[in-house]
Fold:
Amino acid sequence: MHLSKFISVGENIHCTRIFKVGGKFAKEIDGHNVIEYKSDDDTKHLPIPDNFLNNQDWEAGKVKHCAVACWQGTHGDDSAKEAAVDYLQSLAKRQEASGATYLDLNVDEFSTDDNERIDLMKWLVETVQSASSLPMSIDSSNIDILRSGLAACDQARGKPLMNSVSLEREDAINLAEEFKTTVIASAAGRTDLPTDTAGRLANIEELMPLLKNAGLELPDIHIDPLVYPISTDGGNGTRFLEAVTALRDKYGEEIHFAPGLSNISFGMPNRKLLGQTFTYLFCEAGGDGGIVDPFHINLDILNNMDTEAEAFKLAKAVLTGEDDFGMNYITASREKTI
Amino acid sequence: MSLLEDMATALMAGKANDVKELVQKAIDDGLEPGTILTEGLLSGMNVIGVKFKANEVYVPEVLIAARAMKAGMEILQPKLTEAGVEAIGIAVIGTVKGDLHDIGKNLVCMMLEGAGFKIVDIGIDVEPEKYIEAAKENNAAIIGVSALLTTTMTNMKAVVDAVKASDIAGSVKIMVGGAPVTQAFADEIGADGYAADAASAADLAKSLLPA
Structure:
C-alpha cells in the first residue's frame, strides 16, 4: 500500500492529555515542578501551578499538561503566561511539521465552568493560530464552546473543521452553516451508538440530507464511523473496517473520514503499535484520515510500515479478531518481544 | 496448593472450564458454598482487581477472569441460594440521561460482580426516576452513575437530587464515575463516592455498604 495523503486531525492540544509525574516530561527541577519541552531546539520549562499539585490526577501520578498550559496562559504571571503560550505554540508547530492537516482543540475537561471554557476556547484558537498556518478543528460536546471556537477561527487559511455533528447533535449542524465549516459527521444514533455496519450506515444515511441542507458537500464531510476498543470485544476492529469499506463504496471518493483511531487500543498494552497498525488497516479498507497523534501516525510512518514484522502481524491478529482476547499480543508485550 | 487456591489461580488465568470443574469438586468434597465463593472465586477476582489497578493486567484479562467466574457461578449459585448465602449488596448501575456510552459502565458492573455484588444493569441514557425505580424494586444498597461527556456529567446532579428527594434517601448510596468526573465534582453534586477506575469502584462500593 502506498498512500499519497492522510488527513491528519492532530489531537495533541487536548486538555485531557496527560504526562506521567516524574517521567520524561513532568519533572522536578530546582525544587519546582515543571513540564519540560523543546522549542526551537532549546529545552524549556513550563511551571506547573500549585492547584495542579494537589488534585487527584497528581496523586495518581498524572498531570494534564495542556490543561496546565491553558491555566498558566490565562491565570499565570507574565513569565508563566509566556511559557504557556510558547508551549502550546510549539505543540502546534510540531504537529504541523509532522504532517497535521488540522489542529484539534479541546478544552472540555479544563473545568466544569461553561463561561470559563467558552473564553478559554477563544483564547486557545487565537494562541494556536498565531503560530501555525493550519486550519483549526474545534472539538467539544458543548455547543457554546463550539460556537466560541468557530467564531475565533481565521477563515482565510481554509474552512475550520467542527468536531462533531450527528443525529444525536443536530443543533451543531446549524453552526456548520453559520460559520461555513467542514464537519466530522459521527455515526452516533439518537438513542444508541451502533456497533455493526448496518447501524452505522443507517445513521449516516439519515444524517446526510440534513448536512446537505446546511450547504455541506461531500468533500466537506469527514465521517467518524465510531471506533470501540478491541480490548472489550475482539470483533470491534473488523466491524469498523467493514463499515469503512461499505461507506467508501456508498459515498465514493469525495467523502473523507475522521475517526478517533486511538480508541481502538484502550485497555491494551503497547497502544502506539496497535494504533499504527489499525490506521494502516483502516487506510487499506478505504479510510483517508483520522483524529490522531501526528507524531506517531503520519504519512511517513504509514508508508514505511513493515507488514512482515512480527509486531505488525501480532497487532493485526488482535485487530482482526484472530488473537482471542489479544492474549498472544499481551504476552508478547509483557515479555517485551514487541 | 489447596483446592480453593487452585480455583482462584484458574480464575485469574481465565480458565473457565477448570474453574467449573474445581467448583464442582469443592461442592462434592462438601465445602460450604459461601466458603467456595469467598475463598475461591472472589479471592481470585480480588487479585485481578488489584493487578488491574496497578496496570499489571489489561482489560481482556479482566474479561476472561470475569467469564471464568461466571462459569463457576453457574454451578455454585443454586448451592448458594439453597444455603441462604446472599450477595454482599445489590447495586443498580446505569449511564446517565443523554449519554450513550456503555463500555466503562460495563467494566464497573463486572468488577462489582467480582467483588460479590448482585448487579442490576439499567443500561444507557437513563432518566433519574429509573435509577430510583430500579433501586426500590431490587432493594439496592448502591446506585452507580456513569457519564463520559462534560455535557452529560451535569445530569448526574439530577440523579443525586432525585434520590435525595425520594423515599429511598438515606437507604441507598450514590457513586459516580466516568472520564470527565472528578472527586471535586462528586463532592459538589453531593454524591456519596467517586471512583477513578473500575477496580477502585468495587473497593468504593464495598466501603459504602452499611457496616
About this structure: Chain B has two domains: 3-83, 89-208. Chain B touches chain A through 29 residues (CB under 8 Å). The mean pLDDT of chain B is 96.
